[in-house]
Structures are given as C-alpha cells and as structure tokens.
Amino acid sequence: MMARNTVETNTAPVSDVFGKSGPLRLETPFHPRIAALMHTHAWYDWSGYLSAHSLWDEELEYFAIRSQAALFDLSPMVKYRIEGPDAEAFCDRLTLRDVTRLKPLRVQYTAWCDDAGEVIDDGTLFRLSETRFRLCCQERHLPWLLDGAIGFDVAIEEETEAIAGLALQGPTSFAVLQAAGFGEIGSLKPFGIAEFAHEGGRVTISRTGFTGDLGYELFVDAGDALSLWDRLWEAGRLHGLNAIGFGALDRARIEAGFLIANVDFVTVDAALRADRARMPDEIGLGWLVDMKKERFNGRRAIEAARAKGANRHVLVGLEIEGNVPAEHAIVYHRKKREAGIVTAAIWSPMLKRNIAIASLQRPYGDTVTDDLWVEIYALHELRYVKLMKRARIVERPFLKLDRRRATPPGGF
C-alpha cells in the first residue's frame, strides 16, 4: 500500500476513504476502536496512516485533556529500535545531549543535526536497557541512521508498524492506569519508564507526553493493541476517559510551548531553500546542546556559530491582545518592518490569553523586543478584516501545571 505524505482533512466516510478511486492510507492497530467512535469523519494523513483530527468535538476533546483523561493514538509516530554493544556510543554521537548520563528505564527529549549543525529532527530517546534504545520522532531517517552507524556494533530497525502507541493524558490519567491494574505506576517519576505484563506480552509505560499535563505514553506489540485499548477504556469509564484527535492535542501542546517539526521549524531534510533550515539555538533548543561532549554531529558548526554570533533567528512565545488567534500571521516591528512569522497560535481556554509561537529574525526577539505587532486577517460577516494587534514576548511554556511533575500523582 502506498503511503501519501500530504496532510489533509477528509470528511468522507471511512468506506470512501479506502475506496478504489480514493486515496489509500494505512490503518493503525487501534483503528477499529477509533473508527467506531468517529462522529466527525475528520481524518487526516499522518506519515501515511489514517489518523483522526477530531472524533466528536475538537473543543470538548481539548477539555478532556485538561479536566479528565484523553486517549490519543500515537502509532504513526516513527519509531526506531537501536540495539547492540555500541548502542550508547552511537546515540551519544548522534544526538545533542549526553546519552551516557541517561540511565536504563529513562527517557530523554533530544534533537540531532547534520554536520552543518542544522536540525534534522527532534524526538524522544527511550533507554530500555543498557544496550537497547528506542528513538521516536516525526520524520523517517533510516538511511541516514544506518550511514551514521558505520563503525559501530549496533543494529537499527524501524519498528513503527510493529509497535503500537497510545498517549494517555490528563489529570485522571493516573487513576485510569490504577483502575486498569497498573497501580505500581504511582512511583514513576517524569521521564521514567516501567514495564508491565499484558496479554502474555509486555506493555512499556513512560511518564511522558505532548500536552504539558499529567500523562503517560504506552507502547505494546501491534497484535496486543486492541486488548490494551479495551483494558484502558473499561478502566476509564468512571474517570472521564475520552478518545481525542490531533486538533485537541495541538491546542494543548501550544499551551505547553512544545514544537512540531516542519510546523514551528523546517528540518534540514525538508527545507527547499538553504536559508530555511535552523540550528538548535535558532529554535529554542540550544539548552539541549551539551558542549562537554567531545563529539556529536554538528558540534563544530554549532560552536562556530555561537562564537561568531551567526545565528540569524530566534523562536519566541508571544502574548497578543484580543482573542483572535494569529496563526501564520506576519510579525512586524513598529507596524512597518517585517520581523518574522507566527508558526502556531490559539486562544487558550485555560489561560484566557491569546498566545502564539513565532520565528523572528534577529535582532527582533533578541536585542529588540519592544513595539511588536501581528497582522491578523479575521473573517467577519463574509469579509476578511485586517487587524493589527500588539504582541509582547513571554516565556514558554505558557501553561505550567504542578500535577505534571507531582509524584505520586493525585487521584483527581
């Protein structure tokens, strides 16, 4: 089956989506359960898989994340198994952070670059044992990973289809896991990993997520996916568990200040023009760079750019007056000079603030931070109206929730 990369919302029934004349998509292992709950028929393509943008109501799905518990299908996320005696050394050379400090059963948010110091992708690195890792990311990089593994005693294999993934997020997520028989998860700290028996196999649960809330991610063999879903779904009946699509997750991740590759920044592999790729410092990921490491891909270029002050961009959080989201709006300085563009924006229901993530061209956002404006085109009564709204730079994350890190979590 050929996978297509164009992201779209398809409002046709599922039977039409898979018709002979329509586009073909792969089904995730959880698709039968999600399709049974689908009311909006708002499907989109995620890495060649048929995925839900929303299932019943995007706004209420968002509130399920923030006030109850939400279940999101992570299966299309690209996953690589990296295993062997040199797995640690390879991952340490590959990524920006110090992997030697990553203990077994821990997770590390990280990124990796080419030799020019430009970001190839960001993602999470799971250390499942001394010699076994799982790298999760947005884009596919197997040829590049295999080339980089030359000289290392390591095996690399894509396991996207073999491993199904679920994100269980929200204040009652811990209560759902308790009710499902995973009660020992209460001692798990943020970025920790635990393994449990399930249907004769194993389910890996990490205290991670993309919402900035209390939450977990669960990984299981694809053949055990439906039984895991049913186990959680039954346990969640009294805890407000709902299935959600990407639209709701996207709102939550913006509040949390998290980035999406090829949305908030352009990866070097996807950039059509050389000046579109970004170094870690240009997208707010400079804190990931561990210059104490002797070697990693892009180290010399990143060090030289810092020494010369050559980084040209900065990623910032904005708070914008009014309540009209400024997605893809142009940012101006003093209403005249273009300073950058908004990459993601929402009116935050939790914060009651109009927030955005924006990529600015230095010196804007760096030494020049005052008198910033965004140009919004809003549809009012069948006409687009241009709104010039004042913006100010604020810290990310926009939303900080104590329950995200509380150990043990509250029952809520």
Automatic annotation (TrEMBL):
Aminomethyltransferase C-terminal domain location, by residue? 315-399
Question: Which is an annotated GO molecular function term of this record?
Answer: transferase activity
Location of the GCVT N-terminal domain? 42-293
Q: Does the keyword Transit peptide apply?
A: no
Tagged with keyword Disulfide bond: no
- Which SUPFAM superfamilies does the annotation name? Aminomethyltransferase beta-barrel domain, Folate-binding domain
Q: Quote the record's binding site residues for substrate.
A: 217
Q: Can you supply one Gene Ontology CC term for this chain's record?
A: cytosol
Query: Which parts form a coiled-coil structure per UniProt?
Result: none
Q: What is this protein called?
A: Aminomethyl transferase family protein
* Source organism (scientific name): Pararhizobium mangrovi
